[in-house]
Amino acid sequence: MSDVYQSWQSSHKCLIHYVSAMPSQLYYITQKFLNKEKFPGGSFHMRHLKLVGPDKYDLIKKILDFAKQDASQKHKLRVIQDILDHAPITQQFTMVGDSGELDPEIYGEIARNYPDRIKMIFIRHVEGGKNDDNRFQVAFNDIPNNKWKVFNKANELPHKLYDDNDIDDAPINPNNDLDNEINVISLSTSLFYNIYSVLFISYFTMTYNFC
């Protein structure tokens, strides 16, 4: 997957935003993993889990509330909307997620609210996720079929977000004098949420000596 991101960044000068519902306490572990796997640098948008309070059962409740899907969905929607709202209106976005969480529904809502800003949506098919066609048709209702794709492996993704013949139609950075520069932002949700959740809970348990 990292080679695709690297190709997008080198070909189009993409800005990469890693949007994740993981706790921000796992930032350094996540950054180390991405560096090891040679993912390009980018901004990170994670959630902070408050671990304050003498009552260990209250802390457990905070963790359980933090892990709820609706909280994750609200976080991702808010962050992505904020990124789009603060970016130049000429910039388009490619969003990459997976079927394990609510990424199709989140990205579908974003694409309907910002129809001219979303270039493409890629959803990775993951085992254990709800992967039936009806789910994707509902999630991407009113979105052209050529603007979203479900994939299994990274080699199914294009190594260019724009064909050379489409260069004139690509969004241009108004602050740059190069007429052929493509300014695309790729949004990615974490593909490692479940793994890091286990690591985090294990670390938390050892730190607070829960038995």
Automatic annotation (TrEMBL):
Keywords: Membrane, Transmembrane, Transmembrane helix. The keyword tRNA-binding does not apply. Residues 1-125 form the Phosphatidate phosphatase APP1 catalytic domain. The chain crosses the membrane at residues 191-210. InterPro entries: APP1_cat, Mg2+_PAP. GO terms for molecular function: phosphatidate phosphatase activity. The keyword Membrane applies. Pfam families: APP1_cat (PF09949). PANTHER family: FILAMENT ORGANIZATION PROTEIN APP1-LIKE, PUTATIVE (AFU_ORTHOLOGUE AFUA_1G06650)-RELATED, PHOSPHATIDATE PHOSPHATASE APP1. This is Phosphatidate phosphatase APP1 catalytic domain-containing protein.
